[in-house]
Phosphotyrosine protein phosphatase (Roseburia lenta), 158 residues
Amino acid sequence: MEEIKRVIFAAGSGTSRAPMAAAIMKQMTEGKDIDVLARGVVVLFPEPMNQKTEAVLISNGIAPDNFAAEQLTAADIVPGTLILTMDEAQRVKVIEEIEGADEDNTFVLSTYVGDEIEVVDPYGASLQTYGLCFEVLKKSIEKLLAKLETDDKGGHHE
């Protein structure tokens, strides 16, 4: 696989897990040459970030940028793009519906980094659940960055 230049986190309406994951990764990759985007799999209109997502980011020292949910489109996919969804159903939908998304560049985040379970959707749950979602995403993204670094140094996929 070519060097990853863009990572797109794609999930549901694009207002909770995707922007949370993108914000965490942006903070961890500051100063690195990688483009990190949050997109929704089904975005009917540009909603703002979920308030609990925003609160959890702020409490973890991440200032969310001026955010509005955007639909994932073929235009988002450039050479070197890695698309990471939060569950298998989203992965299948993205591959089926978005031109340029395929089995080689679209994965479930947890599977891609070798985690046992998918990132649970905190929507409608307590602030504490959003906090747990943040912790899970943070650990997965740390693994993701380690994997991308290894791959860039000539590591190979099975």
